[in-house]
Amino acid sequence: MLHPTSGGGEPSLSVRDLTVEFDTPQGIVRAVDGVSFDVFPGETVALVGESGCGKTMTALAILGLVPRPAGRIAGGRIRCDGRNLLGMSNRELRSIRGAVASMVFQEPASSLNPVFTVGKQIAGVLRAHDRGLSRRAARDRVIELLRSVGVPDAASRIDDYPHQWSGGMCQRALIAMAIANRPRLLIADEPTTALDVTIQAQVLEVLDTARRETGAATLLITHDLGVVAEMADRVVVMYAGRVIETATVDEIFHAPRHPYTLGLMASLPRLDIDVARLVPIPGQPPHLHRIPAGCAFHPRCRLRHGRSRCVEQSPPLLQVGPTGRRTACHFHDEMTTEVAVVTEEMGADPTVAATP
Ligand SMILES: Nc1ncnc2c1ncn2[C@@H]1O[C@H](COP(=O)(O)OP(=O)(O)OP(=O)(O)O)[C@@H](O)[C@H]1O
Ligand code: SF4
Ligand SMILES: [Mg+2]
Which of 165, 191, 317, 342 is most buried, taking the most CB atoms under 10 A from its CB? Predict the structure, then answer.
């Protein structure tokens, strides 16, 4: 599954038919249901969708961190940097984490251990993958890493404990930790949501610089469409555990081919176009115990127009057009008109939305 932004090489991350299940008192639920996507070297792919759609579970599955015993990977394939992650033992997975793929979480403060200094924790990550590294060399490398993520006075602050650092500084330390062993894949799950608005942009800049310097592929999970527009090359949209659309960031913003993607774009504020009003998506995402038959989005879909096919048949994720974009909607060929209608409802300039 090659893509124009990929340059045609092998993907750093390739996820195929990934399924994650949980045992619950009401029975088995599928938090991730047949998810497939690729992330190519140096590329940033944003994973978006409403709360509970399976974004974090997809990320945790990639790193072998699905919470047990309730959860498990029930099927699929995950290849990272040419290695098959799903066949690996826990020991092998531990060695992969950090060296091949690493993750930055939403809560910087709780992701650091309060009883060790920041410097010790980063040095620990370095030495876990390079047993021969001396304490002295590790300390120098930690200072260098902290400087590269913009921590001022890194040499003197290395011996601080996490509580002495602000949330933004802690997130910089976690990014330093995540890139310490130059992984091929960096996953960031809502990396700025818990931070003050004023420092969100700085932390994103640090993440982007880290991506550029290490050449890592980045999977960025975010609710924030401004962040998507700023950072992503491509976007994977999830709904109720499934991928419902993937496309370049421009295609997603200006010519979505799934009514849910259009709903997200029309219901959330954006910086790139002036709108008179937002158009909310009616209703709520389904509970995983009660996923609607056919297209899971059908009870909320304004493009359905009462058609029975949407209730009877689950739309497959199919390639549409020459650019490799994919969508899961029986009536995607009606989306150009639908985008124009919604754009008019928003009171936006239709020429903006008409540009693919
Ligand atoms: N331990 C668990 N037991 C049962 N179901 C779970 C468990 N953990 C998560 N889930 C379910 O898995 C689904 C996906 O959760 P996930 O955390 O991946 O969502 P998300 O897209 O990251 O949402 P958010 O945007 O709120 O972070 C949710 O609907 C949730 O109810
Ligand atoms: S398949 Fe039907 S219900 Fe689903 S998104 Fe398309 S039009 Fe809407
Ligand atoms: Mg999440």
Answer: 191
Per-residue pLDDT reduced to its tens digit, 45-91: 999 999 999 999 999 999 999 999 999 999 999 999 889 999 889 88
Ligand 2 close to Cβ of residue 328 (< 6 A): no
- 328 alpha carbon – ligand 2 mean position (Å): 8
**DSSP-assigned states of every residue in 198-267:** HHHHHHHHHHHHHHHHHT-EEEEE-S-HHHHHHH-SEEEEEETTEEEEEEEHHHHHHS-SSHHHHHHHHH
Residue of 264, 301, 307, 335 to test ligand 2 pocket, by largest number of atoms within 8 Å of CB: 301
Would the CB of 336 count as within 6 Å of ligand 1? no
Q: Is the CB of 22 under 6 A from ligand 1?
A: yes
Contact 277, 346 (CB under 8 A): yes
For the chain, the straight-line distance linking the first and the last C-alpha, in angstroms and rounded, comes to 21
d(CA 170, CA 161): 10
Pull the structure tokens for residue 46: 């944003």
Q: With cut-offs at 50, 70 and 90, classify the pLDDT of residue 312.
A: very high
Determine contact, residues 254/208, Cβ cutoff 8 Å: no
List of residues 6+ apart from 214 with CB closer than 8 A: 179, 182, 183, 186
Model confidence over 3-41: pLDDT tens digits? 545 455 789 999 999 999 999 999 999 999 999 999 999
Q: Is 56 in the pocket of ligand 1 (CB under 6 A)?
A: yes
Q: Is the peptide bond before 67 cis (omega within 30 degrees of 0)?
A: no
State the amino acid at position 5 in one-letter form: T
Pocket test for ligand 2, best of 243, 257, 295, 311 (most atoms within 8 A of CB): 295
Q: Do 218 and 39 touch, CB atoms closer than 8 A?
A: yes
Interval between CA 119 and ligand 1 midpoint (Å): 32
Q: Which residue has the higher pLDDT, 353 or 172?
A: 172
pLDDT tens, residue by residue, 122-131? 999 999 888 8
Domain definitions of the chain by residue range: 4-236, 254-354
Three-class SS state of 135: helix
